[in-house]
Amino acid sequence: MAGTVTVPGSSVPSTPLLKDELDIVIPTIRNLDFLEMWRPLFQPYHLIIVQDGDPSKVIKVPEGFDYEIYNRNDINRILGPKASCISFKDSACRCFGYMVSKKKYVFTIDDDCFLSSPADLDLDQFDMIDLSDNEIVKLQNFPFMNRLGTLLINNNRITRINPNLSGKRNNTFSLWNVLASTCIIWFIACLFLHFSIICSHVEFLPKMHTLVLMNNRLTTLAEIDPLASLPKLQYLSLLDNTVTKQPDYRLYVIHKLKHLRLLDFKKVKQQVSNHQVLENTLCPSFDI
User: Fold this and answer.
1) What is the DSSP string of 237-267?
2) pTM for the model
3) Per-residue model confidence as pLDDT tens digits over 214-232
4) Which H/E stretch holds residue 161?
5) pLDDT surpassing 50 at residue 199
6) Which of 122, 142, 287 is closest to 204 using CA atoms?
7) Sign of dihedral through CA atoms 96, 97, 103, 108?
């Protein structure tokens, strides 16, 4: 029968991100010992476990997780004549977990998905991240990522860049600190960029040199100003954003981003000083 286990206590923060908006669905035929290595990430969330195979087998779940578990008998009882719509082939029984979840978001993981090493818990291992082709609407709240140099975020719906994109904020826990491995990095990254994650008093992207934001929804010059908080930004593309059609767009961006070398795949001439750029606002014939 389906059962519910209440978490008696937790060492993770009491208000994790998406606590009331995310369920984790796990199809399984075995004891879920693998959850121990995922505990820092999964423990704050509700698990929906769908048991494949012999329904009389008792699936053991590590202590401290909040979960409900369903087997084939439970599915037959709940769905009745429609139970045949749930396939038990190749872990497809997870679809029942999607059906019973009442949360806004669902994340699923197989019971044989293991971390290759403890280092996988460290998000600061990427030189480049590609978040293109999602529905991100606001660029904000990155954790400290000392290695990250290139961020590709094309074909989204970004209308705003947070003024503190790489700035200083008050120190509280960030779920980014326990993001576990590349198999979930992209889902969580795309999802959590919509939410406020408050981090420590540091420059969070100290080595970011390349940012590609093509085909988004930036419209005004002022929306570009927060990019000045990226101290090493040298290569930027905003092609296919409405802002590129603003008068003096190129001049404005070069003036704001002091170290820019390439804008929209066109070289910025190094001899163009800030004073010259400002003067050229009144003299469009100056070639940059």
Assistant:
1) E-TTSGGGGSTTHHHHHHHHSTT--EETTEE
2) 0.51
3) 999 999 999 999 898 888 9
4) strand 160-161
5) no
6) 142
7) negative
